[in-house]
Write a structure and sequence with these properties.
Arc Repressor Mutant, subunit A; WH-like_DNA-bd_sf; DNA-binding; alpha+beta; 12% strand; transcription; 2 domains; DNA binding
Amino acid sequence: MADTASDIFAALAHPTRRQILQDLKDGELAAGEIAGRFKTSGPTISRHLGVLRQAGLVTERRDANRILYSLVSERLALSVGDFLSTVCPEQIVLREVRKRVSTSEAAAASTARL
């Protein structure tokens, strides 16, 4: 699995790969189902899926003779979010606000249990 933002952004550079990620947002799909959504050949879609897998943006699992793909949305969100926070100060502020809110919610939940 790739560990760099460069690999992730390279994977996101192609519109077909971005569309595959969008198609996977609602749940896993078989490779054949994914390929059926495009006018390109099956091997071409397979190569795109390989790029996404290498970047850690999708996972695959075998079910008999089918390969099912799933989106790794948290990796995508964290990678893009980390990049945005370095170039967009507003993202840094939003991240800090989210941390404070989640910390406050966790404290309130802990207090409610007592």
